Amino acid sequence: MNTERASYFTERSYTTSEAENKKDIFEYWKKILGEDTLRVAEKCYGIDLVKVLNSENYVCENNHVMSEMEKVKIELFEKPINYNYSGFKGEKLAFDNFFIPLINYGIDILKNGTSLFLTDSIIDTYANTLLERLGKISLGILMFEMYLCKKTGKLNGRNSEEEYDYYNNNFLSKKSYKQEIFNIYPCLLRSVTETVENLSSYYVLLLERLNKDKNEIANKFCGGLEFKNVVEISSNISDSHKKGNRVSILKLDNGTKIVYKPRSLKIEKVYFDFLGKINAGCKYEMYEPKILDCQEYGWEEFVYYKSCKTEDEIRRYFYRFGILIFGSYILNTNDLHEENVIAAGEYPIIIDAETILDNRRRGRTNSAKEEINYILHESVLYSGLLPHYRFSNLGQGVDMSAIKGSEGKEYPIVIPKIADLCTSNMRFVYEHPTTGVNQNLVKLDGENVSAFHYLKEINAGFEDAYKYVLENKEKFLEYADMFGNLNIRHLVQDTQRYSMLLHTSFHPDFMQDGRDRQMFLCSLFKQYEATQGDKGVVKCEIKDMLNMDIPYFYLNTSGKSLFGSEGEKIEDYFEYTSLEHLKKKIVLLDEDDLKRQLMFMNIILTEINEFQV
Predict the structure, then answer these.
(1) Are strands 230-234 and 447-448 parallel, antiparallel or unpaired?
(2) Which of 263, 256, 250, 255 is nearest to 210 (CA)?
């Protein structure tokens, strides 16, 4: 099994200077990426495309990954595996003869890494999380190989269900066949190896941190009530970043739920502190969730959704929402969509302040479109709290705002889903997803409440907060310094685009050679000047996606550079620092701007079908 074919071209050292120029290979990639994109990638990586596309004489420089792949081969094909996992609660698992050995291998690694809190329920949680991640990588290849067997008459059965069973039980149960699959698709073996390694490391570190902080957690979040075990860990609630790191929700055996975030929570602490200073000039107090910041990671109070019981609670809710709108406006916060705000009774609570103090990159054009975008970027409409339509197509889109985004709305985009599960006709189909159930909408006795009917309260909360800061500019310019030297996440592109590219990169055509998977992801170089603004950003995106992550970028509020997930620095990416931008925004507050922002709010919140002349 040639594991070196799983290496990416940036990990290869070519041992010969000459390579035959096979024009059909170049034309293939030219058709997929375009010649301009190929040349940009060639220049950015400093590579010789002829050599990369044609030479088979190279040495892989990533020895760690190659050795881990060899270890997986030994564990899966040469050592007996203790099949100690029987989970999935009686549900039929597609291609179980492929996945269960991998799951048990992962469980063995987890148990070797830690014994802390490893109850059966946590092992089940780990196994299901691992299965979900392995499925995204493997299902396309397994369905394709089953199709090839069916097409060549190798599957026995009276119907598609029996043909599937035959493939699963007579092909995937054989070690020699799985060895053949990994030999054809070495990138599959690499991706599986890295997924098991990353998830196991994540769980081990999480449980070690939980054990280290258990007394502080009990005191801060559980009212002093101790806990001995974890009942459940939900790890599929957010995107994967930095080699498999995600936000998780833990349910402890004392009944408390807490949120684990694998990053510093200093941002949240400073954000709620600043919001509290704004709140000093308003009628009603905001709610501040409990936070335990441990520098490199942290724990947060789990915020429960709760319906309002009285009309007065509803009015106070929307007044507070007006305060939130102002806080997000002055801090230039974005990405506060329907999943990032919880309606906890009469309190709207932001549960992810990771993208406060966002910034604009330099080098934007002076076109009319850019001028409009700048106005919107600097307005109350930017945060995502107020109605905004995403994935627009021919005038159609989905409102994903915190104040109105609701469930059951169909997106005008398509995403892959599995059709005819556990049959020989299994395949990807592309369907329009719908918005799921979220907890952002305030309710009165279980019924949704329209924000349109509470414009007065929203305006009042916003205006009180605005005027208080306006009247105390000097004080708030001093408060602004609390945001100095903070690392803040910066969103370069929409997560949905990354997700679709990642899905396509697992296509059987691209999993046979690491060079091809990386070449496909070079499609991110297309129109990079308008989208990402710098070739260095694209290289970071590709590196993260080769690691099966959604790309992650951050900025430092006191600097103008952008950083990749591993600290790669793109110099002078922004026109000014985020701290300078915040102070400038405070200085520019005035009565005219207040009227302008109130106008934006009233226009965007007005529902034509409810407006009476």
Answers:
(1) unpaired
(2) 250
Residue 570 has which token pair?
A: 């793109």
pLDDT reading at 85 higher than 60: no
The mean-pLDDT minimum among 56-60, 65-69, 286-290, 425-429 falls in 65-69
In whole angstroms, give the CA distance from residue 453 to residue 433. Answer: 30
- Strand 415-419 and strand 447-448: the pairing is unpaired
CA distance 528 to 550: 17
Q: What is the dihedral of CA 569, 571, 575, 576, to 10 degrees?
A: 70
Which residues of 461-585 form beta strands (DSSP E)? 487-489, 553-556, 562-564, 569-570
Q: Is 69 exposed, middle or buried (0-12, 13-18, 19+ CB in 10 A)?
A: buried
Type of residue found at 71: K
The pLDDT value recorded for residue 612 is 44
Q: In the predicted model, is pLDDT for residue 20 greater than 70?
A: no
Quick one: which of 232, 234, 266 has its CA closest to 247? 234
Residue closest to 246 by CA, chosen among 114, 354, 337, 358: 354
Say if residues 343 and 539 touch (Cβ distance below 8 Å). no
Count CB atoms within 10 A of the CB of residue 244: 23
Cα→Cα distances 114→52, 109, 123, 211, 603, Å: 42, 9, 12, 11, 56
pTM above 0.90, yes or no: yes
Instruction: Please give the single-letter amino acid code of residue 252.
Output: L
In the DSSP assignment, the letter for residue 306 is B
Q: Are 427 and 420 in contact (CB under 8 A)?
A: yes
- Which DSSP string corresponds to 263-289? S--HHHHHHHHHHHHHHTTSSSPPP--
Give me the residue label for tokens 């069973």: 165
* 3 state SS of 149: helix
Interatomic CA distance for residues 563 and 549, integer angstroms: 16
Q: 311-330 vs 455-471: helix axis angle to the nearest 10?
A: 40
Residue 384, Ramachandran bin (φ over 0: left; ψ between -120 and 50: alpha; else beta): left
Going by the DSSP 8-state scheme, the letter that residue 393 receives in this structure is: E
Q: Compute the average pLDDT of residues 122-134.
A: 93
* Tokens (6 digits) for 396: 């159609």
Helix (H) or strand (E) holding 126: helix 120-151
* Cβ(572)–Cβ(362) below 8 Å: yes
Q: Is the pLDDT of residue 9 over 50?
A: yes
Q: Has residue 610 got a pLDDT over 60? A: no
What are the residues facing 489 on neighbouring strands? 554
User: Using an 8 Å Cβ cutoff, are 610 and 602 in contact?
Assistant: no
Q: What is the pLDDT of residues 174-186, one digit of tens each?
A: 999 999 999 999 9
Determine contact, residues 192/244, Cβ cutoff 8 Å. Answer: no
CA 399 to chain CA centroid, nearest Å? 19
pLDDT in tens, 321-349: 999 999 999 999 988 877 889 999 999 99
Burial of 133 (0-12, 13-18, 19+ CB in 10 A): buried
Structure tokens that stand for 489 in this block: 């996440």
> DSSP secondary-structure letter at 557?
T
Tokens of 375: 């106005």
- Residue 342 host element (H or E): strand 341-344
State residue 365's pLDDT score: 58
State the Cα–Cα distance between residues 64 and 62, nearest whole angstrom: 6
